[in-house]
């Protein structure tokens, strides 16, 4: 797995989480962490995808033609890897 | 005409009509101990604010056909707004949950008499009436508008399940708002079981409860559905009916839901508190067929003028309450306020014509954001707009024109962000703040929102 992409995603997640939950720290994420159970609601998630697009330059949800939503953090990172620009 | 009490009394079968995490209510449970209490409020205009759907239903049963009007107030509505809505609707009495909050099945007690609008005198009353059901639209600036419906207008599109089938509906919406009330009435009046979830529970807990109770029919916004599709509990829901409403349903979410719930019939509905239920699309494609403009679905006529969708119902038009503003034109056409376009034989929804931004079902008026931004002394103009987002449909983004283009954008951006976070509700906070050289106005001098 591309560690640079993963760490960038983790960093943006941390920023978004801390801003939304108004806390000083964010939960650690593993591949198995279920996205909808990490403590971000739909709005938080929307902001995460927005910030990732600012950071990485693309949004895989919009680019991907397949009817698929990642469920775990591992799937999420893979989703970004697979749909990034070549 | 049949009031709510009669229609529930006439239901066959004894299966539970309402279930929450604590207990179940059959028709008999809902009707129990209500005789005679309603007559005290004959001809009155009552207001109701309760966080418990079963309690709301019992009050509605008591009052429909007896009271002149019933104003439904969402539980989240703060007291000053409650008073204002009561004044606007001429309501004399408020039924609400006691603060001491005994278990939610204590007898209903009216808590306040506002004395604003005196109750009617006995000589003015007829024996039975078609009670007006007054609902608040989701306003974002100032007070929400009130729309008056009747039980008839609210239940025009109720579908009965096939004989021998018991549908189990899940309630994810607020029961005091139009969408939630539609689900509640559809479920109860078709003799189905309604499973109620608590607003303070997480989506995961709600889904677990719905799955445990065998939910087969579920209505939610596209944003809620995206969350459901991403949840690990989605697999345990065996849905026969998936209904989407409140936001534009795009091709992606319709496709994902077809795969996630292969047995389900998928409907996306166009409805507004003003228009009542408009129509339902079940072909799993966004928008609706262009042919519907000449051959409309039952009970509704559709027209497109100046790129906007208009509807006309064959029923009497509901009206706004407490304002002179007209809801429909003289010929009964209601402006949906939505911009539409024609594309490959379909009419597709583009968004609100007035530029209102829909963030996960919550509406944001760009003007409110712009006014806040321009309150900053170094900002000369701002334009707030919708940036498409795959999770909530849109997010708010704002483009700023500075008084002095050479100023420190990082600092000002930071200050604007802090201003937004301390002044605005979460969904209104701009996700992005951009700086531009200029914000071109349209010919009229106003910002062009198209």
State the assembly state of the protein chains. Answer: heterodimer
Low-confidence stretches of chain B: 100-109, 439-445
Strand order across the largest sheet of chain B:
2-1-10-9-11-12-13-14
The total count of strands of chain B amounts to: 25
Write down the secondary-structure element order of chain A. HHHH
Helix content of chain A: 55-70%
Strand residue content of chain B: 25-35%
Name the helicity range of chain B: 10-25%
- How many strands of chain A? 0
In whole angstroms, how far apart are the ends of chain A? 15 Å
Roughly how many Å apart are the termini of chain B?
45 Å
Give the class of chain B from helix and strand content and strand pairing: alpha/beta
Helix count from the secondary structure assignment of chain A: 4
Q: Rounded to an integer, what's the Rg of chain A over CA atoms? A: 12 Å
Structural class of chain A: mainly alpha
| Major sheet of chain A | none
Summarize the structure.
Chain A has 86 residues and is an all-alpha fold. Helices cover 56% and strands 0% of the residues of chain A. Chains A and B meet through helix 2 of A and helix 8, helix 9 and strand 23 of B.
In words, what does this structure look like?
The complex is a heterodimer of chains A (86) and B (450). Chain A is mainly α and 86 residues long. Chain A has helices spanning 3-21, 42-56, 60-63, 73-82. In chain A, helix 1 (3-21) packs across helix 2 (42-56). The radius of gyration of chain A is 12 Å and the shape is globular. The two termini of chain A are 15 Å apart. Chain B is an alpha/beta fold and 450 residues long. Helix content of chain B is 23%, strand content 28%. Chain B is built from eleven helices and 25 strands. In chain B, strand 21 and strand 22 (362-364) form a beta hairpin. At the A-B interface, helix 2 of A face helix 8, helix 9 and strand 23 of B.
